[in-house]
Amino acid sequence: MGEIKLSDDVFEQIKDFNYWKLTKEQESLIDELIIDKGLNERYKNYGVCKNCKKINARSFCQPCVSCVSKRFQQNFKNWTSGNHVVDEFIQKVQLKAETIYHTIEWIEYDKFEDVEYLAKGGFGTTFKAVWKDGPIWRCNDNQWKRVGETKVALKCLHNSQGITTEFLKEVSYFH
Residue 165: is it exposed, middle or buried by C-beta count within 10 angstroms (0-12/13-18/19+)? Predict the structure, then answer.
């Protein structure tokens, strides 16, 4: 089933509903406004995106392209890797992301704990660590929700100020 955008009128009437706990009156209004049985059921199971006004298609929040890129773009001024090439690369990936699962982020070092050395290689040294906040897994009311503690691999780059397109190709490959 394709994405269906609700009309502004319908959206305005239901935008503040909690789809997972509708009152009898709200459920009756939904039945009146969304007459297609499949869409009605999908709304009651997954809700509606408050940014693009489309009925969600999955049991987890998977914001639309505009929601994801808009949220990231608003945050561009709040972080930097210290390298313009890297910042630009991350920002381009974020703007092209189709979902939150297709993004990369710059994470400050203090967001990691239990950092342990693993190996040294061509571009840098690899460590394992725990990312305290973890990756984004959903977006509610335009606020990121994160997984929580997540085991990750870190790469400490040699000469990170001189990052080349060759290195970024490696990152793109794994992304």
Answer: exposed
pLDDT per residue of the chain (175 residues) written in tens, 0 to 9: 456 778 889 989 998 898 888 999 999 999 999 998 988 998 888 888 777 778 877 644 455 666 677 778 888 999 998 888 888 888 988 888 767 777 888 899 999 999 999 999 877 899 999 999 999 877 665 677 888 999 999 988 777 666 767 777 777 666 5
Looking at domain 65-174, its CATH class is alpha beta
Give the list of residues 6+ apart from residue 105 with CB closer than 8 angstroms, or none: 90, 94, 135, 136
Domain layout of the chain by residue ranges: 1-59, 65-174
Alpha carbon of 16 to those of 4, 9, 20, 107, 145: distances in Å? 18, 13, 12, 33, 19
The amino acid that residue 50 corresponds to is K
CA dist 55 and 68 (Å) reads 16
